[in-house]
Amino acid sequence: MHKIENKIKNIVEISKKIRIDVVKIIHNAKSGHIGGSLGLADIFTVLYFHTLNHDPNNPNWEKRDRFILSNGHVAPVYYSALAHAKYFPVSELLSLRKLNSRLQGHPNALDLPGVEISTGSLGQGLGVACGMALSAQKDRKTHRIYCSIGDGESQEGSIWESAMFAGHRELSNLIAFTDRNFIQIDGNTEDINKLEPLADKWRAFNWNVLSANGNDIQEIINTFEQAKLEKTKPTMILFYTKLGFPVSYMDGVSKWHGTAPNDEDVKIAIKEIEEYYSKIGLS
Ligand SMILES: Cc1ncc(C[n+]2csc(CCOP(=O)(O)OP(=O)(O)O)c2C)c(N)n1
Q1: Residue 67 domain-assigned?
Q2: What is the reported pTM?
Q3: Does 18 score more than 70 pLDDT?
Q4: How confident is the model at residue 5 (pLDDT cuts 50, 70, 90)?
Q5: Number of structural domains, the chain?
């Protein structure tokens, strides 16, 4: 763990707010996917506050980069990033999973500005991202398509159909990333349906493959910038993250894929989040 530099301090500050919101809103809803949401908080903050070319005041701006959340169950971190980016009020986050709320357990594109497609059924988002990338490529548009997938999700056959298609079509405007936390709903991915050697598999499908620590903001920024330079292949970034990061009791424990924290769990989680940020130099 290294101390943060000044130029990324505001991004790091937002990632802390997003993490605290994720814990509070899932606790309030008494259900939701906390482990993946916390682990992905750094990546989502970088996306919405550095990498994506987007305009919250004009969510349908034609030149916007598109972001597809294929692993729709991590909606809490997505909602929190969208709210802090001003797509809708932060106060609305507490309506997560309530009746008639715009913030359902999985994202609904018909209701919520900033959401490109409704997701939650694993394996489908990458195919949609491929279609968007092909259409942009044919129309010679300059925007990019970003897509998030889970590592457990990568056991879906449709992911590899999309992988083959994007590699064949040389969709260099497609930047996908995998939340490589080694955890899925029932345990470790390598025990359930082994993914390794994962980088070699994506390479074999003609993808540009990068890897980085998905819980290090500077590394995440650099890796997305590197991905943007690719001119002939789609890019897959393997982001190594920890389930529930930085909450120690969630690390590597598949129960925290989708269990809401109780009052005591919340206290410890918030304390450990505060400690982590003060250790890396944020007050
Ligand atoms: C087609 C489909 N099958 C099953 C599910 C239920 N489900 C939601 S998340 C999940 C596990 C996904 O694992 P991973 O992608 O590694 O996510 P993480 O645990 O890291 O958040 C499952 C089986 C679903 N949403 N869609």
Answers
A1: yes
A2: 0.98
A3: yes
A4: confident
A5: 1
